[in-house]
Give the backbone structure.
Amino acid sequence: MKKFPDLRTAVARQPLTRREVLQKTGMGCGALALSSLVNGDRSILSAADSLDLSQPLRPRPPHFASQAKAVIWLVMNGGQSQVDTWDYKPELQKRHGQTLSTADPHTGFFKTTGTLLKSPFSFTQEGESGTWVPEIFPNIGQHVDKMAFVHSCYTESNNHSPALFQMNTGLNRMGFPCVGSWVTYGLGSENENMPGFVVMTDALGRGLPKGHAQNWGAGFLPSVFQGVRLKDQGSPIDNLERLEGQTAEEQRSFLNALSTLNQSHKQRFAAESELSARIEAFELAYRMQMAAPGVLDVNQETEATRKAYGLDKEKCSHFGKQCLLARRMIEQNVRFVQIYSGGTDNDKSWDGHIDIRKNHGQFALEVDQPIAALIADLDARGLLESTLIVCGGEFGRTSDAQGQSAPTKGRDHNPHAMTMWFAGGGIKGGVHYGATDEVGYKAVDNRVMIHDIHATILHLLGMNHEQLTYRFNGRDFRLTDVYGRILQEIIA
């Protein structure tokens, strides 16, 4: 059997490298001048708490008592059309084919015609709230009285990548921490054997969302707070199993030796806070080898539960499995789970440029039963009241048809109007907030920016969005930047 070396036999004290010599000498004066800034580089989590980088994922109390303890964010990747889903517009149906005088041909990513395009789907009113539900969401429609709809959301970009960055991080450029990272940074994790933040992307091999891992990155926060992506092919997490031929004792000995060397390095460079997070990441990966396989095994569920999520149906089994995994993770106290419906390009996502009926009909069929099952399952298990569900895309779509001349059956990107809905976790069910104009082209009443959405999510989790900050390069950053209004109107 192959033997794995014990790192404790390695050289305990290594000579200084050229880089280290420069750090200790040439940069010494600058280090003295900046010492006050370095010493002040601390996380402001609450009035009496700061981040312990030796245990960055330990549970931390919120700023105030809250009902929600975890979040499941469902991303309709590509840009779900508001007027074909949750923002029914009778006037749009009546004026189909007419010219929209207020249409801006440059609203979308391409050039639109200005010719109004009615929704190809029929709508019915459901629940005590009388919510208009499209025919493509018959299962979700059964739960509208548990849901709150915000119809007046808007973003700043009509391009997928920056719009996704803004939806996830609050800013339309890369390099900033996403919502899941901020949440786990602020509250830590209740399960030391699982990551606090898990991401699941399209499970049919249709690619990653535009911007890839930047959408679930930790930015300038310690890397231990970035999302752990479950792969759609092969082992869901890299290196989840030990190396072939390696025993548990050998692996533990290897990690102990590695920790000893890391701790020695840490003592020499105490200001390098990232190393503590790296050490914890190694230990978390080791603990996950024991816990994750069981959590990720949906075969442990009853046949009835698997069928409820649609695992027996080809069209929705992939997304159904992800929703079921999300519920299993929430049961194991994973703090934040994000699921992307749809992949990279056009017809591989909700990006219905060509034919909105075909595109949205397909993707709605994939998500309708699983999402409805997730809501019902969480509710039946007493978890919905402590789990906030968020659903929406990176922008909406135009009310006029796409194309430079003759109208088409598709819609272009529209940053001026989109609908997001919420359920569970302190949300007031059956509520509709904000409004778009009579054809759903622009948000006009109680307009809601992405920072407002983020402020509301943090509030529902018991965090003051103005106090949850992290000092980086001499500035206290926060998820909501200098903006953010809590949407009290949708809170129970």
In short: The chain has two domains: 49-236+300-490, 247-295. Residues 247-295 form one domain. The longest strand covers residues 147-154.
